[in-house]
Amino acid sequence: MKNRRQTTQRIRPLIAARKIPNKYCVIISRNADTHTVLLTDGDFVSGGLHRLSHVRPGKLFTANALLFATKAGVIMVDKLDETQNDVVALQP
What we know:
Number of domains: 1
Number of helices: 2
Largest sheet: 4 strands, antiparallel
Number of strands: 6
């Protein structure tokens, strides 16, 4: 049986920060940050998101792998590298 918190939370897309273990970047639909990486359907090898999106490389968080619900798609290597380089560049 799920507890109340599990049933009321939204499922949010994210991307793994490969160069920083166990850290993830949130993916948002609105460009609400000064530095985001645009993510379009053309950036996916397979799958994708339902709308134009933005990765926030400056906003990292840690998450337990048990919280991941599903895999939305596979991002092309060049877009993944661009995101990962921005993650590293924005770290203090």
